[in-house]
Structure prediction request, 406 residues.
Amino acid sequence: MRVLPPTTPLPPPLAAVRDTVTRLFASRIVPEIGSWEARRTFPRPLVRAMGEAGLFGAAFPEHVGGSDLGFRAVAVIAEEVSRIRPDFGYCMNLQAMTCPFTILNWGTEEQIARFVPGLIAGETIGMFALTEAGGGSDPAGAMRTTARREGDRYILNGSKQWITFSNEADVGVLFAKTDPSAGHRGITAFIVEPKSGSGYRAVPIPMRGLSPVFASCSVFLDDFAVPVENRLGAEGEGFRIAMNALEFGRLTVAARLVGAAQGCLDHAVAYAREREVGGKPIGRHQLVQGLVADMAAEIAAARALVRELAEVMDAGEPANRLASLAKYFASRAAKTAVANATEIFGGYALADEYPISMFKGFIEMLNVGEGSQNVQKVLIAEDALGFKDANRASVPARKFRTLAAE
Prediction:
């Protein structure tokens, strides 16, 4: 697979950030990932290389090892990573956002110092464990995992589903019910260390067309002990923490969708310029041009929404409504992009020589991640109809406004 150069203009500071991503993937990640895939082994050295290059620390203050570049930089990095290798986009959630950023926002100073620097450096691997089998878009109502306090520890029992990196994770944010009778008010968040003791098991879920090294798993907890000092926030505060985490996670997922869509467009354009039929490139045919135009227009609109979302987050303002808009439209743009790219490539869309089938698998997965299109449509419509003000319903993190103002 060749790494095509980026084509979208950016202001110089953000262009420099993107160039760092492009160079790293062209020189190290893409040349080496094949050997890890052949062995079906998690590429820890490559994740560490991303951390060392600063790809995970843009939203974090310098005192924990970040660069304090803000969410606009996060969006640019997540897009470029996913434009080249959408499977590595998982890292932008689990190493740069939903796991470490949730600890930064809601953790104690001791928890932040202990866990965050290693995660954003790529030295430790993170996970975010909220979803359960049958839960879908109702994680609170369907949650069956329990946490029972016994002295200076909690005993966790239950299971989680679709938890990426959980078979490799060193650190994770996991949610369980400390009061099963209290609904969403009975949910508590925990920082878990899967390798710290017995009672934790992660089983990869086989998925066609997706990465053989970055697995989503079923997680089983059987009297798994978590020390009280690893509780994140207060008992019963877990639902607030989870919703806040997903709001920030939608930024990276939406940016990853834009990146995957841009990757489809870049490869389709390159192919349409090279492939000839009837003595001229197929890109000269108006039907192909129509497919390209639709892709380009929707990607540009989705990117604009993602960048606006990042700017609002950088300003420390509530962003729940905009996060849903960005995630929803980026999903649409990505689906259009992979469908149109498939039309342009024809049978070659299935060939390993081209990455279109890889993009398709990850776009389908990302369409569901951090809330499906239908969930986003409900949130957007209820806000537009005045049934629910999404911005007032947004749950700001306790430390985020301080961080954004520094």
Q: What stands out?
A: The longest helix spans residues 238-274.
